[in-house]
Amino acid sequence: MAFETEVITYISRLQRLLEKIDAGEVSKVAEVLLDAYEKGRGVFIIGNGGSAATASHFACDLVKTVAKKTPLKFRVQSLTDNVPWMTAISNDSSYEEVFIEQLEHCVEPGDVVVAISASGKSPSILRAVTYAREIGAMCIAFVGFEGGPLQQLSHLSLWVSCKEYGPVEDIHLIFEHILTDLIRRHLCNKEES
Q1: Which of 56, 109, 122, 156 has the greatest number of CB atoms lying within 10 Å of its CB?
Q2: Domains of the chain: residue spans and CATH
Q3: What pLDDT, in 10s, does the model give residues 48-84?
């Protein structure tokens, strides 16, 4: 069985979606993250399922990118990575509390919360972002589909105009790689000047 046609179709769909990326919005998100870094603010990244993997990946890339470039430390944490805490919250309260309860312990006004959700409708994400906004954190969304309530709640959003999880999650990962690269290049250029 040959799948070449399906492979080409999937790649073509991704190419069309990539052409629609709003470079201005990506640039604004990079500026917010750099500002948080330079001011020593915390960056907390959240997501469920495949978006949880992207959250972990993003946190790792941001910290690793900055680690060798400057004496300042990037205070970045994926709230998807402490499985015992997540399961305790889910068991003792409900899964809808899994991110808000963590944020109540660590987020402060001026920090940044990056919320990743293909549908933009995940209750655990919406509760966390609502709380973060109320206390004065900057909220950034990576969304797909129609953006959902998450896009409306967030200060900035990177939106993929697609209603399929796979391509949306692919491009969310591309967003995080673009942002990490922009920050790395900015810091390298700063060091050289």
Answers
A1: 122
A2: 4-192 (3.40.50.10490)
A3: 999 999 999 999 999 987 766 667 788 999 999 999 9
